[in-house]
From TrEMBL:
The lineage of its organism: Bacteria, Pseudomonadati, Bacteroidota, Flavobacteriia, Flavobacteriales. Keywords: Auxin biosynthesis. This is Tryptophan 2-monooxygenase. It comes from Dokdonia ponticola. It comes from the Bacteria. It catalyses: L-tryptophan + O2 = indole-3-acetamide + CO2 + H2O. Its EC number is 1.13.12.3. Pathway: Plant hormone metabolism; auxin biosynthesis. Pfam families: Amino_oxidase. The keyword Protease does not apply.
Length: 697
């Protein structure tokens, strides 16, 4: 999903500066080592005890059931964690069922399509926008499993002649030199290439609250001019990012985790000192031992994220910055560009493709998964080299010439499969309970499912040896009379689910009859990026598609307190606020005249805390939660019979890959408890080999 923006050019210094080969280290591996070193004794012993209490293996469990076709795993939720869990199990020949409460799969991956959308009409094919996740870094080693999944799905879909279901990636234009900025009642907006030395009216002399020393142009001997305020994050984040690049990766992570009890705001105003600015320090700022003033922290929060968002963990913010560096080209360390991709014709096609494969008897083959890993450089090819040349990129998303081809093996033809339903829509799980007497006292899980039947509904009870529950933590408040979703969870698990911090998010999609932004931006076919302001709508995300259309859709995106306040309005009032924010950035355009009018689902769509998200758009840990909650979220409950999954159970919050990693961990837990070492090896060959914390030790 990605929540950080880094739209001020000078604030990009820490992700576009020095890069070395060691920057390819895995944040997952670093957190794994930290977790094991600091919490390994309790964490490992709990897993060991759980696994020792179960003498089951897959053959014994199946002998206790009616047939080998009887599902062993019940999966709650049809988002990416649930879908990916199913795809792995399917590839290993283990039966399962997926229950989704709504009428679509994807969870927080959800595309809005106008009622006038027509993919075959150039003028209406652009009438859509991403309610949920909308982009992924193209080259991040930690995030390549997302592209691997798409390639693996395509192999199955092609084999089954479901060509129309196959998925492709197109370029997502993240930024440009001509994207607009406007703050603090500036007389007019400016463009990004002119923003580096502009104080944006934050200085006291122009009505702001920053002492002028922070926003007065200066330079070092022989260096380029700069504003001191724009160098702060380089010094805040730089030591940690440099450590990840240049030092032992695990030691660097340990260094970062020492500050897990601080929020980003707390670190800026209670840890970081003026003397830490080094060569950028000026005595006019204050004494060297002083911390950053409130006005400086406010400026950085305003330009970087959203109102109140610096209340999240300092570690979270640094991890997000590290993830962002994965948007850069690892094959050419001199390449300063950011590479991001999005799903062609809408992200909803991605989970829909997952469902199409899950509802086949046979899914991904070992050869499919292995080939896909080679295609994107997850593993080396037969010649011992890594490259990147997936065959599902549109022309605009092709990698630069400095990226070597992957030379994967030829695809296997395989055999088409017949249908087998495993994904059940409009099936709302309302209760999950452990029963130690199930399966001849081996224990298992019983779930109650509310199934829509015509104008009514019925309650169906299901039993499984294992359950993987993938709902956002807020969705475990079922709202059912006299029935809790979970009962008898351990104290640590119940607390982790209750306390795990989620970030509110707001999006709006507004259709315009003419693309005034493209005409004024003069970048019609190469993207505009993101426009920003301090108005409540915060960001305008320009479309990376639909260049041939006369009109188009602008997407408004904000988080935290800005999102809460926008969400408190009625739907039409939200659109009105967005229009005012767009007009603020475009005083030279007839924004209201170009507006296609307020017609819900045809010209407009707003989203805030969708019911299925359970009160927050994505996990974003607060101070101390990586240290105190994370290992609990990963640990199975009820002697291993219940696994919790979802992007909160990952170090990659707000990204699709977080959901995938958590699903891999849940399946691995089940296979380990069943003693299925050969199936674990097969899983690693097909889907890649993850380490803890994404795979429980």
């Amino acid at each position: 999903m990605s929540y950080l923006s880094f739209n001020n050019p000078n604030l990009k210094r820490t992700i576009s500066g020095k890069r070395t080969e060691s920057s390819k280290g895995s944040m997952r591996k670093a957190f794994s080592d930290y977790l094991i070193k600091n919490h390994g004794e309790n964490y490992a012993s709990k897993l060991k005890n759980q696994r020792a209490q179960s003498k089951s293996n897959i053959a014994r469990l199946r002998s206790l059931q009616k047939s080998s076709d009887t599902p062993l795993v019940g999966i709650v939720g049809g988002g990416f964690a649930g879908l990916y869990s199913g795809l792995i199990l399917q590839s290993l020949g283990i039966e399962f069922e997926v229950f989704e409460s709504s009428d679509r799969v994807g969870g927080r991956i959800d595309t809005w399509y106008s009622t006038k959308y027509d993919s075959k009409d150039p003028n209406t094919a652009c009438l859509y926008g991403e309610v949920g996740g909308m982009r992924i870094p193209q080259f991040s080693p930690d995030m390549l499993p997302v592209q691997h999944l798409g390639l693996s799905l395509n192999a199955v879909l092609k084999r089954n002649k479901m060509i129309d279901k196959m998925v492709a990636w197109r370029k997502f234009y993240y930024n440009s030199d001509v994207q607009r900025l406007r703050y603090n009642n500036m007389k007019a907006p400016i463009i990004a290439k002119n923003a580096g030395l502009n104080p944006l009216n934050f200085g006291k002399d122009t009505g702001g609250d920053l002492p002028m020393v922070w926003v007065t142009e200066t330079s070092l001997p022989g260096g380029d001019p700069y504003l001191p305020i724009n160098m702060v994050l380089e010094k805040v984040n730089g030591p940690f990012m440099d450590a990840f690049r240049d030092e032992d990766f695990d030691k660097a992570f340990d260094k970062l985790m020492k500050f897990d009890n601080y929020s980003m705001w707390g670190y800026l105003t209670n840890v970081f000192k003026l003397e830490d600015l080094g060569e950028y320090y000026d005595p006019k700022m204050g004494k060297k031992h002083h911390h950053l003033p409130y006005s400086v922290a406010s400026y950085l929060e305003t330009l970087n994220v959203g109102t109140g968002m610096y209340a999240v963990s300092f570690v979270e913010m640094v991890l997000a910055l590290y993830d962002w560096e994965g948007s850069m080209n690892p094959y050419d360390l001199e390449d300063p560009n950011i590479y991001m991709i999005t799903m062609n014709k809408g992200m909803q096609h991605f989970p829909d493709a997952c469902r199409s494969v899950l509802d086949l008897q046979e899914g991904v083959l070992p050869e499919d998964g292995y080939r896909a890993q080679v295609e994107i450089g997850m593993i080396e090819n037969a010649k011992g080299q890594k490259g990147y040349s997936p065959d599902n990129l549109t022309k605009d998303a092709q990698p630069p010439s400095s990226v070597p081809p992957a030379h994967p093996p030829k695809p296997v033809e395989g055999q088409p499969s017949h249908k087998k339903q495993r994904v059940f829509m409009n099936h709302k799980v309302i209760q999950v309970e452990h029963d130690p007497l199930l399966y001849d006292t081996e224990g298992g899980m019983r779930i109650k499912v509310k199934v829509a039947k015509g104008t009514g509904e019925e309650i169906v009870t299901k039993e499984y040896p294992y359950v993987i529950s993938t709902l956002p933590n807020g969705a475990y408040l079922s709202g059912e009379l006299k029935t809790n979703f979970f009962d008898h969870l351990s104290l640590s698990k119940a607390r982790a689910i209750r306390e795990c911090s989620y970030m509110p998010s707001f999006k709006a999609f507004i259709t315009f009859k003419t693309k005034f932004w493209a005409t004024l931006g003069e970048r019609q076919d190469v993207g505009l990026g993101v426009g920003t302001s301090d108005r409540s709508n915060r960001q305008i995300v320009y479309p990376s598609y639909g260049y041939d259309a006369e009109g188009g859709v602008l997407q408004v995106y904000c988080w935290a307190q800005d999102a809460e306040r926008m969400g408190a309005l009625t739907d039409e009032e939200r659109v009105n606020e967005c229009l005012k924010g767009i007009a603020y950035l475009y005083p030279d355009a007839d924004v209201y005249g170009s507006f296609a009018g307020y017609h819900p689902e045809e010209t407009t769509k707003t989203w805030f805390w969708d019911n299925h998200a359970g009160g927050g758009a994505f996990a974003l840990f607060g101070p101390g939660q990586f240290t105190n909650l994370y290992q609990t979220l990963l640990t199975p409950e009820f002697d291993g019979h219940l696994n919790i999954a979802g992007e909160c159970c990952s170090v990659h919050h707000g990204w699709i890959v977080g959901a995938l990693d958590s699903a891999y961990n849940a399946v691995n837990n089940i296979l380990t408890q069943m003693g299925e070492t050969e199936k674990i090896k097969t899983m690693e060959k097909m889907w890649g080999r993850l380490t803890a914390p994404d795979v429980a030790i």
